[in-house]
Write a structure and sequence with these properties.
The protein has 551 residues and is α/β, with parallel strands linked by helices. The protein has 20 helices and 8 strands. It has helices at residues 2-9, 11-36, 54-65, 70-95, 105-136, 139-159, 172-194, 200-223, 235-245, 250-257, 267-270, 327-345, 356-367, 401-414, 427-434, 436-442, 460-463, 488-498, 508-517, 541-544; strands at residues 262-263, 280-284, 289-290, 301-303, 349-354, 373-379, 451-457, 474-477. It has a 6-stranded parallel sheet with strand order 4-2-5-6-7-8, with helices on both faces. Strands 1-3 form a two-stranded parallel ribbon. Strand 5, helix 13 (356-367) and strand 6 (373-379) form a beta-alpha-beta unit. The longest helix is centred in the first third of the chain and has 32 residues, at 105-136. The relative contact order is 0.12.
Length: 551
């Protein structure tokens, strides 16, 4: 013991201990992941020994997904905050510069446990947003929780070392090291998700050692003497308040990223079909779309209505609220429309679905396997939605129960400016959660007798967890969610596909972006442990790394 104490008194000995501890922690997590065969979380282990606040961000994502009771959540929250405080105390102490006076262990321990708890509280709204991302697969949620994390990281990096961390702006060196850690963790996640799962163990050790270097440089940057700008200003409380009060504006940002709301009239509705197209076409709008009843230019094309058909079997006008119904109910309405249009035109039917409309079309194909539909175009379909779970509001026990309540609180803030009155328990969302095994596993799987293609925007690459996510032809293009369907260059591809020509293009950067996003996604909830899902026949892509497979 004396030898160890003497060894830790030397800068070289402390640095060796720092490297060893920072490397061992990711190795332990990577080993557990490899033993479980948990393919979807291979990119997470380096974060377990990362600098503030990234390690806490990883802890919270595991906790928000894997808890079943409200008391259990808070007990675990306290336990992991205390454990994280102890770990950061040891890591910070080992990384402490020799030339800087060292505080007592007791002060550092108390401070880090308190800061670990405070950091977890501060980050929890954005961890809840990561649950919304994993529920819907929409990339704007990913942007909405990573940007605040990056903004807060330089401030929280100072918290465990300085009593005045909440005042003034961090120096550029601190900002640089905080953001460099984010970049390295992103690259680490990409590499770990690209190699075979057992190779991830030594690779996790390598990036754990890199974390040790980042700890040393970050602690030195925080403790370095220098002028702090705006020292008298409580910058951190102001930033947190600004971020929280920005929640009501997020639906407006989402509106832009998702291609806007309201009237949806893609080119197929405004241009006549060429004679080479043998189909009658039903165009399905996405979430919060609206329809004023105006027919398409070509009589062979009709707009799908979430409210169904009128007495003349024509689609009814609808408002955004109509799109909030469950996917099963919407698919039943589509079945009536398919039958009516086929009887009227005596043609096979093609479906063109956008976002939620694509999910309605895919649900219809699953539940009505004998159909007049012979071609389907899926624009910006939700990729592997339902990766997490939270029970309905009236149920007080179940996986993700506290996360569900925090989402409801956040949604109440958003609805200050959001006229569509979204709620986390909306029928559409609940249908994604209830049938998650199907949507995770088979959304982009082939259907016998139906020609299919999916048009995927660039953001789909970061929405999908590591592993296979499509087995039908895809056409990949740079765009945000919802932008492709309205582009006239894509309209030509739609007509080519409807005329019988193959349409397919894969971009190399998609796989790269998919790997880079893997470090910041929440861990999926295993299908077999959730009673709501466990009776299903679907295999779990989170463990197999493949889709379209049964158990």
């Amino acid at each position: 013991m004396k030898l160890l104490e003497e060894w830790l008194r030397t800068p070289r000995g402390r640095f060796k201990a720092l490297v060893a501890l920072a490397a061992v922690l990711p190795v332990v997590e990577a080993t557990i992941i490899a033993v479980l065969g948990f393919q979807a979380v291979r990119g997470l282990p380096p974060q377990v020994s990362a600098v503030w606040p990234y390690s806490t961000f990883q802890d919270l994502r595991w906790l928000f997904v894997y808890h079943r009771t409200i008391p259990g959540f808070f007990l675990t929250f306290v336990a992991i905050s205390a454990l994280r405080g102890v770990l950061t105390t040891v890591l910070a102490n080992l990384a402490w510069p020799a030339a800087v006076p060292h505080p007592s262990w007791r002060w550092l321990l108390r401070r880090n446990i308190w800061v670990a708890t405070l950091t977890a509280v501060i980050l929890s709204p954005w961890v809840a947003l990561s649950m919304a991302f994993a529920t819907t697969g929409l990339s704007w949620y990913l942007i909405a929780y990573l940007l605040p994390l990056l903004l807060l990281a330089p401030f929280l990096l100072r918290a465990g070392l300085s009593a005045d961390w909440w005042r003034g702006l961090p120096r550029l060196e601190v900002v640089g090291w905080a953001w460099l850690s984010f970049v390295i963790l992103t690259v680490a996640g990409a590499l770990l998700s690209a190699v075979p799962i057992w190779w991830g163990i030594p690779l996790a050790a390598v990036f754990g050692a890199v974390n040790a270097l980042l700890w040393r440089k970050s602690v030195a940057a925080v403790l370095a003497p220098g002028r702090v700008r705006f020292r008298a200003v409580p910058v951190v409380p102001l930033v947190i308040a600004l971020l929280l009060f920005s929640f009501p504006a997020m639906p407006l940002v989402a509106e832009r990223l998702q291609g806007g709301r309201g009237g949806w009239r893609p080119p197929i509705m405004t241009e006549p079909l060429p004679d080479s197209v043998p189909y009658a076409v039903i165009a399905l709008g996405g979430h919060d779309s609206e329809y004023d009843g105006e027919p398409a230019v070509d009589p062979r094309v009709e707009r799908y209505s979430y409210l169904g058909l009128d007495e003349q079997k024509r689609p009814l006008p609808y408002t955004a609220v109509a799109t909030h119904r469950s996917l099963g109910d919407s698919a039943a309405v589509l079945a009536e429309h398919v039958e009516a249009l086929h009887e009227r035109t005596n043609r096979p039917i093609a479906l063109l679905g956008h976002s939620e409309g694509a999910m309605v079309a895919r649900t219809y194909l699953e539940r009505w396997p004998v159909t007049e539909v012979e071609a389907v175009l899926l624009f910006s379909p939700l990729v592997m939605p339902g990766r997490v779970y939270y029970p309905p509001a009236e149920i007080r026990r179940g996986w993700g129960v506290v996360a569900g309540w925090e989402l409801r609180l956040l949604q109440a803030l958003w609805n200050i400016t959001d006229t569509s009155d979204e709620v986390p328990d909306q029928e559409f969302i609940r249908s994604l959660l209830a049938d998650a095994p199907f949507y995770r596993n088979r959304t982009l799987c082939p259907v016998a007798g139906v020609r299919m293609v999916a048009f995927l925007p660039t953001v789909t690459a970061v929405e999908a967890p590591p592993g296979e996510y499509h087995r039908i032809p895809v056409y990949e293009l740079p765009a945000f969610h919802g932008e492709l369907v309205g582009r006239f260059d894509v309209a030509d591809l739609v007509l080519d596909f409807l005329s019988g020509e193959p349409v397919q293009r894969s971009e190399m950067q998609y796989e790269v972006l998919q790997r880079l996003g893997s470090a910041w996604q929440p861990p999926p909830l295993a299908l077999r442990i959730n009673p709501v899902w466990s009776a299903g026949r679907e295999a779990d892509p989170a463990f197999t790394g493949r889709i379209c497979e049964a158990r």
